[in-house]
From TrEMBL:
GO CC aspect terms: axoneme; microtubule cytoskeleton; nucleus
Protein name as catalogued: Tektin
S-adenosyl-L-methionine as UniProt keyword: no
Short name of one Pfam family: Tektin
Amino acid sequence: MNTFTPQIFSTEEWYRNNQRRFNQSDISRAEWFRVWQQSKQLAKEKKLLTETVQDDSTKKIAERAKQIFDCQKDLEKALEQLTTETRKLELEKKRLQNSLNEVQMSLVVAQESLDLRDQRISSDLVHDRLQDELHRELEIIQTYRDLTKMIIAELESQIKRNQQSKNELERDWSDKWEAYNIDTISAHLQNTSSEQIAFYTGPQKIPNKWSSPQEWIEFTRHRLFYAKDEIRTSAILRDKINSHLQNGYKDLRNQADMVESVLAQRINETNDSLYRLKQHLQLIIRDIAEAEKTIQFLKKEILEKEPALKQVQTRLHLRNERPNVELCEDQPHLGLIIESREIGATIQVLQEQLARAEASLSNLMQTRRELEREVAVKENSLTVDKERVQPLRKKFPAQHKLMGH
């Protein structure tokens, strides 16, 4: 069994060892005091730095939140203007469609007026000024109708562009609303918000879809510019629509007034012609009666000459039977020959006059038939123009309807 003998120190060594421990303690305490003072100073400086940095960050986040909020207000204003303008365009579209429906009625009126006038007959089936004005009315209506359809298509395209712009503004507003809420929460976070703050891994990394402040500004600026441009274009289009409706009504109404004026003039002309035809017909009827009387008179005169002719012819026949020398060319016989010739010539003249009177009567009767046919033609024309076309023209749409109201 080995035995261990502990080292025995001297009293002097014991004092030196204690002194060394005291010295080491003083050195350690001095070092700690220096570290302690440095730590307090560093902590104070870093606390001030941290608070300064945090305050700066909070201020910047708050400023950024206000910037986003202001931008949201601009977006909201543009959205309101765009929505209002689109609503106005929808109303203008309804006006145009209403006007288009009424124009269709005016087209029916014009075409039916032409179709009705095709029911005129004989010499009255003429291509007169009224026909020209009705054809012109058709052209004006069709041109207005086609232009209205083009404007409706343009308006629908503008409404679609407005909606696209609105969608972009709403998406941008929604993103900014989310960003505003995030920055508002971030700005109000405190170091004491223990339930809201936590440690996160790698938050300092830059996201892949990082945008620059300039890109952020330009993104919204571009959409606002596009929206304002669509609002301006919409307003211009509304002015164009209003001018189109006003000018269209003016053109249609002016031509309708022209048609109705020419129609009234044509009715007056037909009335005047009918009146004069009836006057001539009355004169012809009176002349026919006189002609018939004259013919009867001539026939009577011819009949009255027949006994005298028979008498003279009988006298001549008897005197031609005188015997021998008694068959003499004496004055009585010569007188009878002259009388016979005169009576025959008279009958011949009366018969010729009778033939002329009968021919004239025939001509009068033919003229009467023609006048009666022409009166019927004019009465038919009046029925068409006055009783059918003129009432039809009253169906022409009123101003407020053609204006789309």
